[in-house]
Hints:
Blueprint: H1 2-43, E1 58-62, H2 67-78, E2 82-86, H3 90-98, E3 107-110, H4 117-131, E4 136-139, H5 154-182, E5 185-190, H6 194-197, H7 204-223, E6 228-235, H8 241-244, H9 248-256, H10 266-277, E7 288-291
Parallel strand pairs: 1-2, 1-4, 2-3, 4-5, 5-6, 6-7
Helix pairs in contact: 2-10, 4-5, 5-7
Nicotinamide-adenine-dinucleotide (NAD) binds at residues 62-63, 65-69, 87-88, 92, 114, 140-143, 163, 190, 192, 235, 237-238, 240-243.
Amino acid sequence: MNINENSMNDVHLTDDKFVLDRLRISLGEMYNFSQGILEKGEARGIAKKGDCMLKEKTAIVTGGTRGIGFVIAKKYLENGASVAIAGSRQETVEKALSELKEYEGRVMGIWPDLCNPEAVAEAFSAVRDKFGALDILANNAGISSRTSLYEYTLEEFSKIVDINLKAVFVCSQAAARIMKAQGGGVIINTSSMVSQYGQPSGCGYPATKFAVDGMTKSLARELAKDGIRVNAVAPGVTRTDMVAALPKEMVDRISAGIPMGRPGEPLDIANAYLYLASDLAEYVTGAILRVDGAAMV
Length: 297
Ligand code: NAD
C-alpha cells in the first residue's frame, strides 16, 4: 500500500516536473523564436523593437525636414513604415536624412516644387517604385504669417496660399491617383487651431487653414469610394521653429489660455498622425482632429 502510494506520488512528481520542464522549454523556444524574427526584421530594416503600427506601409511626409514633419517621419519609421521626406531644398532634405541613418534602406528624400503637378507626380511615382506602394501622404509643409492687412503684399499672400493650400491640392491629387490604382490609402492634412476662429493679423494663414479643412471634408466624401481616407490634424500652439518666430508675449499669452497648461510638443502631433495613418482609424474619414490641450474647447 505504502509502496503504491509512494509510487503514485513519484509518478505525480515526475509528471509535474516533466510538464514544468516542457513548459520551460516551450517558453524558451517561443522567446528565441520571436527574438529571431525581430532580429531578422531589424537586420532587413523592416522591424524595430516597440510598436509596429505601420509595418510594410509607405509614407510621404511633406515638410519632413524639421519641426512637426520631422517628428512625424521619425514616428512612422519607428512604426515600421518606409518614409520619403519631401522638402523644399536638397540640402535640408539631406541633413534630415543624415539624422535618420539608423533607418537606412527605409528612408529617402525628394524635393519637388510642391506646387508643380508634373514634378510632384514624378517624385511620388519614384517613391512608389522604390518602396512598392504609396499608402500614406502627410501634407504637413506650411508657412505662417503675422503681417497686418495694411502691409500685406499680394506676393506674400500668394506665397502662403501656394504652400499651405495649393501644395495640399497638388500633392493630394498625385497621391490619390497612385492610391486609387493600388486600392486605397490615407491622406492627412495639417490644419490649425486658427481654422476655428481666425487670428488678429496675418489673415492669409487662417484663410489657408480654413480652406484645408474644407478640402479635407470634401476629399473624404469624394475619395471614400476609392478606399482613400482623408483627415486633418489641427495642432494648437506647438513648440517648433514656427512658434519660436512668434513674439514671446504672444506665445505666453496663448499658452496661459490652454486648459492643459502647456503648449503642444511635436510628438503630441505626430502621435495623432500615427493614429490616423494606422488601421485603428479605418472608419475615420473627414475628421479634423484637434490636438491642442483643449485650447479650442
Ligand atoms: P516649421 O517651420 O518648423 O516646419 C515647416 C516645414 O515646412 C519645414 O520642413 C519647411 O521646410 C517646410 N516647407 C515650408 N515651405 C516649403 C516648401 N515650399 N516646400 C516644401 N516644404 C516647405 O513649422 P511646424 O511648426 O513644424 O509646422 C508644420 C505644420 O504644422 C504647418 O503646416 C503649420 O501650419 C502647422 N501648424 C503648426 C503649429 C505650431 O504651433 N507649430 C500650429 C498649428 C499648425
